[in-house]
Amino acid sequence: MIKMLTSLTCAMLLTVGAANANTASDRLERIALPEGGVYPNGITHANDGTLYIGQITQGGVLRRSPDGEWSKLHEGAPDIFAGTSLRLDRERNVLWGASPDFLPAGKPRTPRIFALDANTGEVLQTTPLTVGFTNDIAVEPEGSILITESNGGRLLRLAPGGTEFETVLQDDRLTHESGIGAGGIARAENGTVAIGNFSSGQIYLYENSNLRQLDLPRPIENPDGMRFAPDGSLILLESAVQSGNGRVLRIADPVVAGQRKIEVIAEGLNSPVNLTVAGDGIAYVTESHIRHRMVDGLEDQSPGSFHIVIVPLN
């Protein structure tokens, strides 16, 4: 059993920061995963509304068509054993994924990045990372991807077909004594990259080769998946390992100097971990229910089903 160390204070857990939640979890529409789908994590979408979903504890990529039909894009393999992040390069029709061994049952497997043909599921490449933990992904315009590496506080880059990771950034502020530092990542159209430290609760912006901490009224309790919305705001998930009150947050104008407000869009989610934001202002959030495997005393709270939560952002 893996137990997560968090160092966030009780005051942080109770303070919303700027606005009250405007949607409770039980009022949100949900999409049930098909039979066999468990602990959803990575998620992305195609322009036609197709959803792709990866999982924390098993390989394989689930696909949901615009009319609601489920299929498996990829069955999983010894070298594709998880999908904590999925990002679609729509221009090239390449589905990128991160496959780390987050809850190893035995000897941990080597984390890696994989790429699939988004139509056929053909494996285009798998690239192992010999040292570190591949966490989340952002796609760059030219087809390369950026990856957060959680153990060493690194931002990595991998080119299509590449066999070596380039270290773009290493910063101790993206590490944590628990071993889980750099997590969620999002890239804005202007090239600004947002990175969350999962355990410290801080959000950073990487722009013009400089990393700066976002000035917020409180730390985020385990910031995880994040995306820039069409209006430029940063939409991010508060996974909330200790309190259990998972939230969808918005930070408006994140690149503007000065303290930024935290707006709570929705709360009461069970371990929200990743999301994708459609052009119509709808966020699709993976509600992983993984908390019962991370916190002592919750072992018997295994969920009976798993869902994607639909969260209107407007």
From TrEMBL:
The keyword Nucleotidyltransferase does not apply. The keyword Signal applies. Keywords: Signal. Residues 1-21 form the signal peptide. Gene3D superfamilies: TolB, C-terminal domain, YVTN repeat-like/Quinoprotein amine dehydrogenase. It comes from the Bacteria. This is Gluconolaconase.
